Amino acid sequence: SQTIHQWPATLVQPVGSPLSLECTVEGTSNPNLYWYRQAAGRGLQLLFYSVGIGQISSEVPQNLSASRPQDRQFILSSKKLLLSDSGFYLCAWSSGGNYGYTFGSGTRLTVV
Amino acid sequence: DAKTTQPTSMDCAEGRAANLPCNHSTISGNEYVYWYRQIHSQGPQYIIHGLKNNETNEMASLIITEDRKSSTLILPHATLRDTAVYYCIGRRPLSGGGADGLTFGKGTHLIIQP
Hints:
The complex is a heterodimer. Chain A is mainly beta. Chain A is 0% helix and 57% strand. Chain A has strands at 3-7, 10-13, 19-26, 32-38, 44-52, 55-58, 65-70, 73-78, 87-94, 102-103, 107-111. By secondary structure, chain B is an all-beta fold. Classes of the chains: A mainly beta, B mainly beta. At the A-B interface, strand 4, strand 5, strand 9 and strand 10 of A face strand 4 and strand 9 of B.
């Protein structure tokens, strides 16, 4: 069966520090991968998606970047965090077509 | 992508059917309606999706009107664990092709009362 792993679960980082969040998927190949962010009291915002290794598309301009170094690995990064980067970050995968998304358990990031 | 409108919150008694409405009057002919739910501090969970016909699975039923301008998610026997935010989403293609994006609104906060 397919599983998605996301870590860490919680993270507190100072303003200006770098960020690296990792997401891995098991049990499937060539998944579509997604990063979402949920700010406090708000809905989920799609940040990045990837249809293959090295292929990254950004939905909104921001202080973050994403990379996909391996088929089932998706990384969210920042060189210098801002206070506004605080939020709940969720990774998801899908097989494409009409299949739904499977989300990870999320990382709650607090920038102080 | 279709804009969806849902009530901000709803209450339902435990053991009763919970009926969550969603309006999507601008949905296009090839857009599916997806439902997800998010329990506090967890990732969203897929519930069900449909295009034209009513759908049922082990979690819920989805009733789509004939004109496709609205739908209703039905949880037949609500339990306290069904308390969550429920999102009705129109599925749209992302730019660049090859992947489909889901646009989440604010959803309906369903509270199951004991």
